[in-house]
Design goal:
CATH topology: Arc Repressor Mutant, subunit A
Number of helices: 5
CATH class: Mainly Alpha
Largest sheet: 2 strands, parallel
Radius of gyration: 14 Å
Strand order of the largest sheet: 1-2
Strand content: 5-15%
Oligomer: single chain
Helix content: 25-40%
Number of strands: 4
Number of domains: 1
Order of helices and strands: HEHHEHEEH
DNA sequence: CGTCTGACGCACG
DNA sequence: GCGTGCGCCAGAC
């Protein structure tokens, strides 16, 4: 697969990615957030799918990106198949004390971390 | 260039 | 609360 295609003058895109990774790194240990929340926070309320796409590239980043702390709006582990194995994402979350039941974060409502609202 | 796909989210019933 | 349909935007064919 191709290394990176954003060497092109897609400045807007690069900025989008930077913001996504920036926020993803801020997610506190033991907390989770959603793709849509990140998208909305960076001014692209309809770019939730792009956030997921960015998470797919998170592996390529130098710094560690806690992509396992990002789930969809219902708290479901929709990206668990992108962690090398179907159970890796769940195990990562459980190692942080987050309960998973039926591929869903237990008590998601309480563990949810809003990048913009709860950011100080 | 037309179509399909997808780590999403919302409206509707 | 759950299933379905649709809009969204970038990539792959």
């Amino acid at each position: 697969m191709k290394k990176i295609s954003w060497n092109q003058p897609k400045e807007k895109n690069e900025d989008f990615f930077s913001r996504v990774y920036d926020i993803a790194r801020m997610i506190p240990y033991g907390r989770v957030t959603s793709y849509g929340a990140i998208a909305r926070c960076i001014g692209s309320p309809q770019g939730a799918r792009m956030v997921g796409w960015a998470m797919n590239q998170a592996n390529s980043q130098r710094d560690f990106i806690p992509a396992h702390r990002v789930v969809n709006r219902t708290g479901m582990l929709s990206g668990k198949h992108h962690f090398g194995g179907p159970r890796v994402m769940q195990e990562l979350l459980e190692s942080e004390g987050i309960g998973i039941e039926d591929d869903r974060v237990v008590n998601f409502r309480s563990l949810f971390w809003d990048p913009c609202s709860e950011l100080i």
